[in-house]
Amino acid sequence: MGEASTGGPAKESVEIRPDAVWVGCVDWNVRDFHGYATHRGTSYNAFLILDEHPTLIDGVKAGFAAEQLRKIAERIDPARIEYIVANHGEPDHSGSIPDLVRAAPKAKVLATKKGIETLRAHYGCDWPFEAVAAGSEIDVGRRRLRFLPIPMAHWPDSMVTYDPADRILYSSDALGQHLASSVRFADELPPGLAMEEAKRYFANILMGLAKPVAKALEAVAVLAIDEVQPAHGVAWRGDLRPLLEAYAGWSRGDCAPKVAILYDSMWGATDRMARAIAGGVASQGVQARILHLRKNDLTEVATEMLDTPVIAVGSATLNNKYMPSVGAFLTYIGGLRPPGRRAGFAFGAHGWRGGGAADVSKALEEMGFEIVAPPLAAAYVPDDAVLGAAFEKGRILAGEARARSAGERPA
Ligand code: FEO
After folding, report:
1. For labelling alongside 172, which of 147, 148, 306, 373 has CA 20 to 30 A away?
2. What is the pLDDT of residues 125-184, one digit of tens each?
């Protein structure tokens, strides 16, 4: 005998409170999010507050607009929505708003002043906007929703929405993860998974904005929060301290005693140098991680760099310059600007003419890395003397990593 009918298909929207419903969308198959390798997909989270004055917090990416509207319609006629809160105008959260505005013609669109500019720039729209600022509130019935701008975490327009009645922080990009899942909370996933993805997300989305993120954390620290509902990934509830402490540490540039060896090689010579450096690091009891820059995506490399104080960057010389993968790495990390004072060292093999290692060293210096030692170059194939020097450099880098992770950074 089959199971008794439950009276229709299950709802796709998910209650996070009896009168607050997740109406976001899970993007299981996205693997490239403007260059971020989203190996576990992502979600675009949005929330419908079913209070006296129905309120929607955030849209979703454009291709998911119909799905979002379907989820809203499971709970309420979309035309009854009175407020659409746009915490952030980037298209992954605002792409459905043109459809939402059409479906909810009575709704005011609430955003920061910068948010309104951002939405107008993207959609050429003249929606019924209402600008909100720090501490602005709206009375939606049982709740007074409060808005707090968090500029540059992620864009100038970013803000969070706080619900003091349910003690929920709708945190926009902050505290999110690119993680598709069939559950809505971190504690419903295998232990550590959400935090692993939160780290990857911070490294690749927020590392270059560490100071504004630290300010955003200060702004929300005064709030009584039981639950954080970010705009990507799963939500956090229960003891929020590990998450907030991790964010504070990443924003400060706290590091572990380890060295990353990042390189590209043509015929294996630079690869041998990388391994010799790693041997020197390991001989000091310090962890070394080797990442080939054509075999690992930059998302993984940036994640490794988030809490790595010392890097060795190697490149064979190709066309009198470093290799293209190394150039891409330098461009990406130059933009992300890891917080704290980091140290670097360059190495690499060359043929009849050098240039790769020296150019890498110069680039690292220009990016603000303290150069631990002059570049180490090898003609064609590293001999025992070069490999010995590489091992020795590894020992020095290990010492630097220990000192820097212990907070002994230069002024
Ligand atoms: Fe998830 Fe800055 O958008």
Report:
1. 306
2. 999 999 999 989 999 999 999 999 999 999 999 999 999 999 999 999 999 999 999 999
Residue pair 338/323 in contact (Cβ under 8 Å)? The answer is no
Q: Where does the pLDDT of residue 1 fall: very low under 50, low under 70, confident under 90, or very high at 90 and above?
A: very low
Of the candidates 44, 83, 201, 263, the residue annotated as catalytic is: 201
226 an active-site residue? no
Query: Known catalytic residue: 201?
Result: yes
Indicate if the pLDDT at residue 410 is higher than 80.
Answer: no
Q: Which of 93, 154, 178, 350 is catalytic?
A: 154
> Which pLDDT value is given to residue 148?
96
Among residues 377, 370, 373, the alpha carbon closest in space to that of 315 is found at: 377
Residues 180 and 401: their CA atoms lie apart, in Å, by 35
Counting beta carbons within 10 angstroms of the beta carbon of residue 81, is it exposed (0 to 12), middle (13 to 18) or buried (19 or more)? buried
Cα–Cα distance measured from residue 122 to residue 97, given in angstroms and rounded to the nearest whole number: 11
Joined tokens for residue 291 = 């990442």
Token duo for residue 194 = 């959400």
What confidence tens digit (pLDDT) does each residue in 284-296 have?
Answer: 999 999 999 999 9
48's enclosing H/E stretch is strand 47-49
For the chain, give the mean pLDDT.
95
Pick the residue whose CA is nearest to atom 1 on ligand 1.
Answer: 173
Q: Is 95 left (phi over 0), alpha (psi -120 to 50) or beta?
A: alpha
Both structure tokens of 65: 């607009």
Residue type, 245: E
27 close to ligand 1 (CB < 6 Angstrom): no
pLDDT exceeds 70 at position 409: no
CA nearest to 201, candidates 187, 213, 217: 213
Active site residue 196: no
Note if 34 is an active site residue.
yes
